[in-house]
Amino acid sequence: MKRITLLTDFGTRDGYVAAMKGVIASIAPSAFVEDASHDIPPGDVLSAAQALSRYWHLYPAGTVHVVVVDPGVGTERAAIALAANGHFFVGPDNGVFSFIDDDQAVQLMIPIGASRTFHGRDVFAPAAARLSTGEALHQLGTAIDERLVLVKEQPKGNVGEVIAIDRFGNIITNLMQAADVEINGVEVMLQVAYGDVGEGELLALINSDGLLEIAVRNGSAAERLGISRGARVTLRL
Amino acid sequence: MKRITLLTDFGTRDGYVAAMKGVIASIAPSAFVEDASHDIPPGDVLSAAQALSRYWHLYPAGTVHVVVVDPGVGTERAAIALAANGHFFVGPDNGVFSFIDDDQAVQLMIPIGASRTFHGRDVFAPAAARLSTGEALHQLGTAIDERLVLVKEQPKGNVGEVIAIDRFGNIITNLMQAADVEINGVEVMLQVAYGDVGEGELLALINSDGLLEIAVRNGSAAERLGISRGARVTLRL
Amino acid sequence: MKRITLLTDFGTRDGYVAAMKGVIASIAPSAFVEDASHDIPPGDVLSAAQALSRYWHLYPAGTVHVVVVDPGVGTERAAIALAANGHFFVGPDNGVFSFIDDDQAVQLMIPIGASRTFHGRDVFAPAAARLSTGEALHQLGTAIDERLVLVKEQPKGNVGEVIAIDRFGNIITNLMQAADVEINGVEVMLQVAYGDVGEGELLALINSDGLLEIAVRNGSAAERLGISRGARVTLRL
User: Fold this and answer.
1) Is the ipTM here above 0.90?
2) Which residues in C lie closer than 8 A to residue A25 (C-beta atoms)?
């Protein structure tokens, strides 16, 4: 079973995602195509990289993961494909694969006639489909040594930062210690599960990625605390 | 053909849904995984139960229906799996399966190392995948006699209530009579189809679930009438 | 591999889309069902027609394309199925197939007991499933000669109009010339790719459908210029 996952910031209503699916279906008709998401905030490369890191390794080896969050489409930014741990990755060289530790990387050839504004349809979907039919990575382009990698901000001593806000308004930090924290002047106590505090109360916990997270039971911690990405969080040890 | 449907309140943009799909693909690579929805309002167990009741019985027997709207994840609420009419259901014991009349029910074993915040990935996806590969329900846990069931409010004489507002702003009631109604002081006449009144006009009709619904042609009845779930509706017989 | 694509304005949260998928799975269990979109603005037939025209021809022949944007459901508007270029199309006769040049067209029989409000489940999903299993178009209904077709507004000399705003806020026109333009009193210079101007700056380009588009790099041109569908755009030749 060949499988391709799709992650984009296209939304679905304009038909751009379906155009990619049509191209894939024509080249690799028996591939399973699975939507990861099309609701990445427009142009938010870091969010795409973080979302990808939550799922790619859970798929079976051989899966091809396509990521098209691509504000630089049509410029000199390269189109790339990677192999890592038996998985394949296809997308722009703009940091969306920052958290993938690749074994092999190629710069994709741009097909003649490819649009300058929609590489999802004209470059990435065909490359992914070809990989899923068993074509080798090196047949898709020329080997490259370097690619753009966003550096993860590391905590400095007891001070970490907010790296993401999820759809529930949970505040995800780059801290990995199980501890009480202070954020925006508010002290938040460590718990184990969302249900360990009363309705509408704040808590901290270690989330399913092993990261310290600040949440409100059945509410949005980001709204409550007025927090966005990059805010500072201090451990109370 | 084994088939698994997914209904959650995760949205897709954080990659949590794709994590579940990855787990399923690794355990049951030939299963068809179909998105029912990931846009259930966060924590709205009743909406999930109602959405599920619109589709599960239309699928072929053998389908596994996963529902993860789970504000109590990680607390003492049980994880369960049910069999009903040849279909399977996997999710938290919090009322999401209120409208399923089960033949058999088990409490799922929680795998060692499962996160306390993401049973969708660590408990429900693996259980669903195993059921889809033919494992028996009783192999996944221990039989239970009771589970949490939300009671449907029944109409009292001529007075019913609003049980849901759908994406179009249609007001769905628990009444089953084809009749004119009064809601929030406004009388609404019974029709047969949305197009039976002029653009922007109110109408009542029996909807595709056999329930009395109040709508505005090409508009939102809920907005027009200022109505939310729980409001009272009176039959005009 | 039989394949069915779905395009609706249902959203997913109410379970209506999953009901259609369940019906298809019961009739055509081995068909691949792919979501094109369920986020067409409610009742926006023209948007559906435009989205469809971006993808249908990229799929392999034999694909069945279902479109349910159907504000007139249950009225005298016909339910239809078309064949064009080896592809099939199923939906209401309200203009959603305006940009399909069909070889054959039938009016679908309405099954006894079909709801008057949900032909997606009761008429279109079963018809699509039957086509995907190899049933002939003429077995689904009676041939028709005419159907409703929305006329594309053509540019008049140097003056075109805005035919769509996409999810990024890009302004899509019906002009096909590569040229500078004036819109709402603002002159916009032609470029080749979004990245050819600075962050937040306006540009015009020929998009992936060959149409002149006005965009803001990493922003919304429609918001910036206060533009909606139907606005006038003038070529600066």
Assistant:
1) yes
2) 1, 3, 32, 34, 58-60, 63
